[in-house]
Amino acid sequence: MRRIAWCLLALALGPALAFPQALKLDSLDKLAAQASNSVKVTLEGSLLRLATRFLSSDDPEEAQVKELVKGLKGIYVRSFEFSKAAQYSDSDVEAIRAQLRGSSWKPIVEVRGKGDDNADIYVKEQGDQFAGIAIIAAEPQELTVVNIDGLIDLDGLAKLEGNFGIPKSIRVKPEKKAK
To answer: pLDDT tens digits, residue range 47-98?
Structure first.
């Protein structure tokens, strides 16, 4: 009987104690058919560790990337370039944003431009550390979503740029003001 009580307690508390989960990005995969270019990266567990073997321990920057990746559970990237605007809908982006709202994700950057250039950055806190980061960059002809799942050293985060399919820079171009 005591075992049943412990099992019920574990089932009840399990979701609250669980380590943060990666975002579900599969809803974006259908956009590859309309895109002129697309990138899909899903590196988890042993595949993520395998990818770090291609980085040199002798190169200081690559060694830092290897160290940073040790605390990660996964790196997920979906990036699409379109030959014309309106090839993806607001609901495609909203499906990702909905996962970030009302959970332990906290928005730290939100950019909304008049030219439909938007960017969001969210972090997921676990105690004194960050357990995930999500970046959404949406432009009329381009959409990129990056989700890094696991304990993150924010000081070293920039070192992941250009590695594992993470774009070198995700920027929303500011509109020029008319004089």
So the answer is: 888 888 888 888 888 888 788 888 889 999 999 999 999 899 999 999 999 9
Task: Please indicate, yes or no, whether the overall pTM of this predicted structure exceeds 0.85.
Answer: no
What is residue 132's three-state secondary structure? strand
Phi-psi map region of 109: left, alpha, beta (phi>0 left; psi -120 to 50 alpha): beta
- Locate 45 and state its tokens: 């567990």
pLDDT in tens, 145-160: 999 999 887 666 666 6
Q: Is residue 99 part of a domain?
A: yes
Asked if residue 178 is part of any domain, the answer here is no
Among 116, 166, 36, smallest CA distance to 157 is for 166
Domain housing 106: 20-160
Alpha helix (H) ranges present in the chain?
Answer: 2-17, 45-52, 60-69, 90-100
Residue closest to 72 by CA, chosen among 45, 106, 51? 45
Whether residue 166 contacts residue 143, with contact meaning beta carbons closer than 8 Å, is answered with: no
Q: Is residue 121 part of a domain?
A: yes
